[in-house]
Amino acid sequence: MEKILIIEDDISLRNILEKFLHKNKFEVITTDKGKAGLEIVTSQNIDFVLLDLRLPDSNGIDILQAIKKVHTHIPVIIMTFYDDVRSAVSAIKSGARDYLTKPINPEELLGLLKPATVVNKAAEIRKEEFVKGKSHLFAAVLEHASLVAPTTLSVLITGESGTGKEELAKYIHTNSLRKQKPFVTVDCGSISEELFGSEFFGHVKGSFTGAINDKPGLLESANGGTLFLDELGNLTYENQIKLLRVLQEKKVKRIGSIKEIELDIRLIAATNEEIVLSVQKEKFREDLYHRLNEFKIHVPALRDRKEDLKELIHYFIIKSNAEFNKHVKQLSENGLNALVQYAFPGNIRELKNIIRRAVLLAKSDFIDTDELSEEIFHTHTLSVDTVDLKSLQEQQEKETIIKALKKTGNNKSEAARILNIDRKTLYNKLKLYHLE
Question: What pLDDT, on the 0 to 100 scale, is given for residue 386?
Fold first, then answer.
């Protein structure tokens, strides 16, 4: 039975939803506070969250982001009276599965919950088309991925932020002998020292304050399948030691338990940092690096595979049409030329956001330059005279970070959220660009 958490301060609506979901064979937990909801998500196995946008003790978007920071696999639906585009876009950008306005139509809600969609702790992979493109650089990446997929080798995927490392990891998994087993993603940069043990190893009821139920860890949830370690370079040295010990012994014990669980896991890790330098500086354990780097694949930046732009744009238009119930057919020639000239410091993730925004704003069945983000036209663009692409990207990245810091009043946590990177990555870039 799937377990749904309702975080809603309207007691009448909360009771209506609870009774309706019970009737449709869901287990339901309710609370009227955002912080209490976070504690429940951390301590129990929740399959779905219904979250009010306006709560007495917190903002629903903040709670959504806090949930997604650690529990990326849990789908969240935002509920609100405030039916405006700004709130919808903000919720979706922050990771909401969907957005419903009050009064909630129970059958509409059930339609979101029943078909597919409760994703369990195993973090099932969505059945989506993988955009292969036409560039020779990415063709080589896919060739290597296809070769290594059926093996048991651990894979280290490197590349800049936003290049699609997680999608490549999913591609490897779905073409492996473990494709029917779980694919579990963990953002290494989002798990604190205090939460590492509980999140990776799990815990038993009563093992510490707040442990009100038994909870399997990420390693146990990935058993038989693939564990994807994203942002590998952000693992603290102490956590590297704990993880390496478990991987070597191939056994795990939940916190508070004496029972050992045998592990059979395929490892894929990704990093946008030069991890070899971290190994040389003894910031990353060499033995763990070699354990994860049995086969290495580097994903090229979008600026180096412009042949794939048209296919990627078409794919994101289709996805955005479905998301926003729009009917956009294509990008205008002027719009395409503008994107071809753009350097994409945020790579494919940035392109996806640009197209989603453009589809949402489009007033007809095609996207023109008016719907494209201003930064495309107000930052340096590529040309045939461009020689140092790395310097160009670094300059754009530096300018974007400066804008984000200015917009947030130098609030680094908020700037990192806007830039869609973790705080450690932001601090590293501030040091790199002498912006401290």
Answer: 44
